[in-house]
Design a protein that fits this description.
The chain is of the alpha+beta class. It has a single domain (5-109), classed as Alpha-Beta Complex (Maf protein). 44% of the residues lie in helices and 25% in strands. The chain is built from 4 helices and 3 strands. The protein has helices at 5-12, 16-22, 27-41, 92-109, and strands spanning 45-51, 66-75, 78-87. The longest helix is centred in the last third of the chain and has 18 residues, at 92-109.
């Protein structure tokens, strides 16, 4: 788990410039997180999630319930990545539960 930006950089190799330019809750950052997790773990599949579960932290451009997902996987020597944006309604617990379900559903769809 890499909750903070420092952990995203140290553990997953996300470039600080990406975080500064786009914020943690963004397509480029979640994609970099998934690819970094795949590369650094040696796993065949990696899932990355970055979102705003609330109750605070939302902005007009990124409201509470905004969640970016990325799935990275190996197929032979090729590496693939898929990124999706979702907007979930509900309180913090509901957003978190929907996020987990969507992340796992994405793995099953690979």
């Amino acid at each position: 788990m890499s909750y903070g930006n420092g952990a995203k950089t140290a553990l997953l190799g996300v470039a600080p410039a990406e975080l500064a330019a786009h914020g943690a809750v963004s397509e480029p950052v979640v994609k970099a997180m998934a690819l970094g997790a795949l590369e650094r773990s040696g796993a065949d599949i990696a899932v990355a999630v970055s979102g705003i579960a609330g109750p605070d932290g939302g902005t007009p451009g990124k409201p509470v319930g905004t969640v970016w997902f990325a799935w990275a996987w190996r197929h032979g020597h090729a590496v693939h990545v898929q990124v999706r944006l979702k907007f979930f309604k509900g309180d913090r617990e509901a957003v978190r539960r929907k996020t987990v379900a969507n992340a796992l559903r994405g793995v099953l769809e690979l």
